[in-house]
Amino acid sequence: MDGVIQIYGRKKCPDTRKAERFFRERRVAYQLVDIDVKTPGARELELFASVLGADELLDTQGKRYRERGLAYMEFDALSEIGEDPALLRTPIVRSGREVSIGPDTASWEKLATQDSG
C-alpha cells in the first residue's frame, strides 16, 4: 500500500470529510477506510502509535471516551482502541509510514506532494 493515501475515519465525521475534500480537490488518489465498517488491525494501530504516540490516537473529546469514564482511569490506549474503535481520533491519514491525525492540512499537503512526486 505504499504511496497510496489512506484516510481512516467515519463517513459522518466532519474532519474525515474535510480530508477527503482536501485530496479530491488536489486530484490526489486516496482510499477511505471507514472504521465503522473495517476497524484498523493491531499492526496498523501499532504503526500509528509508533509514529504519533498511543495517547494521541484517543479521541479524548469524544462521546465514547466520556461514556466510558476513561478520564478517571488508568488504561492501555491501544488495548482500549482495539476493543472499541469508536475511541479512535479521526481522521488518520497515512501514506506508507508517514501518518498524521486530525484536521492537519499542513501534513496533508506534505503527503499529497510526496505522493505525486
At a glance:
It is built from 5 helices and 4 strands, in the order E-H-E-H-H-H-E-E-H. The chain has 117 residues and is an alpha+beta fold.
Question: Would you mind describing this structure in some detail?
Answer:
With 117 residues, the chain is of the alpha+beta class. The protein has a single domain (5-116), classed as Glutaredoxin, CATH 3.40.30. 40% of the residues lie in helices and 15% in strands. The protein has 5 helices and 4 strands; from the N terminus they run βαβαααββα. The chain has a 4-stranded mixed sheet with strand order 2-1-3-4. The model has no long low-confidence stretch (mean pLDDT 92).
Number of domains: 1
Would you identify the CATH H-level superfamily? Glutaredoxin
Proportion of β residues? 15-25%
The overall pLDDT average reads: 92
- The CATH architecture classification is 3-Layer(aba) Sandwich
Element layout with pairings:
Blueprint: E1 5-9, H1 14-25, E2 30-34, H2 42-52, H3 63-67, H4 77-83, E3 92-95, E4 98-101, H5 105-116
Parallel strand pairs: 1-2
Antiparallel strand pairs: 1-3, 3-4
